[in-house]
Design a protein that fits this description.
By secondary structure, this protein is α+β, with helices and mostly antiparallel strands. The chain has a single domain, classed as 2-Layer Sandwich (Beta-Lactamase). It contains five helices and four strands, in the order ααββααββα. It has a four-stranded antiparallel β-sheet with strand order 2-1-4-3. A hairpin with a 4-residue loop joins β1 and β2. α2 packs across α5. The longest helix has 21 residues. The radius of gyration is 22 Å and the shape is globular. The termini are far apart.
Length: 172
């Protein structure tokens, strides 16, 4: 019995050692934290947010879809909302959820949705809506807000309406 236990422990030790040497975890680059008492962050203006929301709804309307669009600041707080006259009531919550998720994760919600199978806990984060249709708004490399669109038959259509609106407004 003791020999069997010793053999099993040896086998387990070898298996763990092999697993540790073959697994190559990806380690993120270090983040430099502020050393000052306060920090300043760029934020999207109400004017730009309003134009992005309105243009996103217009972009989808031109494609034949009644949608809502919500634009949030970098913290996920609502700045502007636009809704097509015939958009369903559910589109308001969907657009906010997508915008909040994108601002929080600093990523397209379509990319987040692709990774959901590997990290299903993302769907349980309060306020997260892991469906395509949300996109961060960047000025340079800095996320200053996010746009979420809901109501088209595909989240990728929602996403395109929002990203096209953002590109247009930020290029003006």
């Amino acid at each position: 019995m003791k020999k069997t236990l010793t053999a099993l422990l040896s086998l387990l030790t070898i298996s763990l050692a092999t697993a540790q040497t073959t697994a190559t975890p990806t380690t993120p680059a270090p983040i430099k934290l502020a050393t000052t008492a306060t920090v300043s962050n760029a934020s999207l203006s109400l004017s730009a947010a309003s134009r992005i929301a309105t243009l996103a709804v217009s972009n989808c309307a031109q494609r034949g879809y009644n949608v809502s669009a919500t634009v949030v600041d970098r913290s996920g707080v609502t700045l502007a909302v636009a809704r097509a006259e015939n958009a369903g009531p559910h589109t308001l919550g969907a657009s906010l959820g997508k915008a909040f998720t994108s601002a929080s994760a600093r990523n397209l919600t379509s990319n987040i949705a692709k990774g959901l199978a590997d990290n299903p806990g993302l769907a349980d984060i309060p306020g997260y809506l892991v469906l395509a249709g949300g996109a961060p708004i960047r000025v340079g490399d800095v996320v200053v807000g996010a746009v979420g669109v809901g109501g088209a038959p595909s989240g990728l259509i929602d996403e395109k309406c929002g990203t096209d609106a953002t590109a247009t407004v930020l290029s003006q």
